[in-house]
Amino acid sequence: MVDLVTNAGPDADQAKDLDLLLALGELFTLVVYGQLILEQASLTDMDSNLTDLLDQVFDVLIRDFSAYAVDLYGKASSTKAQQLWALEHVRKPAADTGRYDRVWQQVRDLAGAYEMRP
Fold first, then answer.
1. Planar angle of CA 39, 41, 43, nearest 5 degrees
2. What is the largest CA-CA distance in the chain?
3. Are the CB atoms for 20 and 10 separated by under 8 Å?
4. pLDDT tens digit string along 28-56?
5. Which of 9, 12, 83, 112 is 20 to 30 A from 45 (CA-CA)?
6. Tens digits of per-residue pLDDT, 9-22?
7. Which helix (H) or strand (E) holds 9?
8. Residue 21: which H helix or E strand, with range?
């Protein structure tokens, strides 16, 4: 993200393009969320169930980040440098069906466990 800001940041005209700024904001937000999640994870003792959950959360964050990078690439006002940066940062998360199934089982186990107050 530092490279994007320092070498391909928005120019004065792009600073007025709310559509482009929204795509950039989404990318920055995902980085911050990921950092906060990792910081909290380092402060807590994580068992294997939480490690699976953390990895699955990052699976979603990586897919979202890649989608917003593709979105940035396709913006009419994006520059060649921004487009290049965007394509260089599209990633596919590491697939792990076992992890997905374990996390999904945790979710299913919670079905019906909570009741709203009347």
1. 75
2. 57
3. yes
4. 999 999 999 999 888 887 776 688 999 99
5. 112
6. 787 888 888 999 99
7. none
8. helix 18-43
